[in-house]
Automatic annotation (TrEMBL):
Belongs to the acylphosphatase family. Belongs to the carbamoyltransferase HypF family. Residues 4-90 form the Acylphosphatase-like domain. It is an enzyme of class 6 (ligase). SUPFAM superfamilies: Actin-like ATPase domain, Acylphosphatase/BLUF domain-like, YrdC/RibB. Its EC number is 6.2.-.-. InterPro entries: Acylphosphatase-like_dom, Acylphosphatase-like_dom_sf, Acylphosphatase_CS, ATPase_NBD, Carbamoyltrans_HypF-like, Carbamoyltransferase_HypF, DHBP_synth_RibB-like_a/b_dom, HypF_C. Residues 200-386 form the YrdC-like domain. It catalyses: an acyl phosphate + H2O = a carboxylate + phosphate + H(+); C-terminal L-cysteinyl-[HypE protein] + carbamoyl phosphate + ATP + H2O = C-terminal S-carboxamide-L-cysteinyl-[HypE protein] + AMP + phosphate + diphosphate + H(+). The gene is hypF. This is Carbamoyltransferase. Pathway: Protein modification; [NiFe] hydrogenase maturation. It comes from the Bacteria.
Amino acid sequence: MRSAVNIAVHGRVQGVGFRPFVFQLAQKLSLQGTVQNNMDGVKIYLEGEKSAIEEFLTDLKTKAPRLSKIHNIIVEDSELKSAEAFSIIESDRHGTSMLVIPIDSAVCDDCLREMNDPEDFRYQYPFINCTQCGPRYTIIDELPYDRPYTSMGGFPMCDDCRKEYEDPTNRRHHAQPIACPKCGPKVTLLDSNGQVYEAENSIEVTIRLLKAGKIIAIKGIGGYHLSCDARNEQAVATLRKRKNRPNRPLAVMAASIAAAKEFAEISQSETDLLRSPEAPIVILKKNRRYPLAESVAKGMRTIGVMLPYSPLHYLLFADPELSCLVMTSANPSGLPILYRDDEVFQYLSGIADFYLVHNREILHPVDDSVVQLNNGKLDFFRRSRGYVPDPFTTEQDVTGIVGFGGQQKTTFTIGRNEQIFIGPHIGDLENIETINHYRHELDHLLKWIDIPKTTAVIDAHPGYQVRNVVKEYDFSEVVEVQHHHAHMAACIEEHHIPGRAFGIILDGTGYGPDGNIWGFEILYGDAAQYERMAHLCYTPLPGGEKCILEPWRNAAAMLIQLLGEDGVRLAQTIFSDKEREINVLKKLIEHNLNTVYAGTCGRLFDAVSAICGVTKVSSYDGEAAIQLAELVDENNNFEPYSFDLQKEKMMMINFSSMLKELADDVIKKKQISLISGRFHETVVQAIVLTMDELLMKNPSAEKNVVLSGGSFHNRYLRKRITNELQARGFQVFVPESIPCNDGGLSYGQLAVAAAKRRS
């Protein structure tokens, strides 16, 4: 029996070879009709035998292209139009956008095979791509995703490329970035003055320069990297000096999994992440051999590794002697990623020796995503290239809500119907360049996603820059959300947790309604509201920001506040070269001058790191805590130090006795890795005991727990706290698809506003 249907497919269905897939499927089943991109996905008109249509719908769901992600399929009966064939028709650009914006994807195996085939006309072409790989989000100017509205619009296709592009049976049918050596972008090697150094054999010459120890700025998919030979200590040290990045670990790109295994331990799950279309940087444990330059990740037991994800990257590894490259973002410290060709010579002058550039414009920069496997689950440090702006689905209408994020590791989040779009990693809003970058990316996504500006959501901190940014937009209302409630709500929303939950939120800084700095919190509630149940006791930060930059000051202040004259003695013994400064800190605390009070996990870790002599002065955010955590093996067991739990209406954890015992161990020159392990376990046991007490006081409380805040990147804390709570019958949830740090804050802000709207 012959029948007809109209099919609407929503989700990630543009720029992923979906129309050719539909065309070939219809041809196989002898169906007639049309397929068309439009502003809310893909529309299909289908007519033919009813059984064939049913088979088509089954295959549509189960055999779609690997980069596609179908959110829903709507099927409606239609009148027969007596179509004689099946065809792909021109996109409809009218109406309100409901599109899922295509993401950038690592080069696929099919393209790599062609690139390495001397008989193929794209042999060694650094911009080879197809519908299953290549740039997407970074080259889009307008929607829907068609070539004229991308930065490839200025490259007219040659006859060979056009033939593939127009062939519905070809892998490159409507692959918008399609190109070849005759008609596509080209690479050029420039010297430090911006003059052409080599045009014809630019990649070969770049390889020779890298082997000779030179530092090359390389234009990639989402921005510029600074690169050098990761085995060359002098080259890496020079890069650090020039970039003024003395200690922060540098990411590396390995030629292959085999090359990465020369210096890192890699599980099968980590291998799958490295080889995935998203191709993130994966934090791996160094192995015992570790032949790379020591200063790539000095003092670390881990290293950030990625595989080549563009054809250009693969070509740079043509020489087997060059198997691993430092590949770090080219932006100077504190500035957003560099991606405009006219900016790199200004900002990288005196840093890069040469520049490997190309003439395909980057319209939207994206940093590399950074992940690790933490207690068996995915843990995002940074969610950007390969993942952004792919939406999350939600169970409520979030249209018109925009979360503006915080001050550090900033992102923004936009709600449309039952979709939540998290923008790319922006960075710290501490200079005009980063703030302008934030505005630029927010404006584009707001235009593409096309929503009424109903509710802007900001952090409750009165000094965050987003307060000024939000004034530039015409929202009907502005809602403030407490920092740690946003962290808690993000995890609740991600996992669609019903009812209420405890939130154990450990991080560095969050403004509390009492005017103090929170960051070691146990909350109870849901996305709409919360109650603070317990926290770390407050200690002073005399000099404010200076205590964060110089953790020894924070440590001394904590000892003085918690242990009195005994603490002064301990501080003067441990920081023996700072006696005068310690006396000044003591007076500031006594007279409450230029002093704020904080109870945060980040500042606690900073203080212990300084007391242990690990990091007394930080050169990057989180250095003290990271270096202290690197000393601890999450698979070991440690005896905790003592601590006190003050069981008042709101419980308070006091680590005075722990600090006294720990400081004494340092003075006695006990092994620092053991001290760090005991400290970590003390934090675990303090939280677990507090949870036991809270459950006794609140026996009807639901036994859901979310763990969030940047301190939960710490492998030991996440594993031990999860295991201890699960042993007590709690169901434990952790962020897996969004960062637990402030990169997930905007998502949580939106979740809070949506829940309040619903309640």
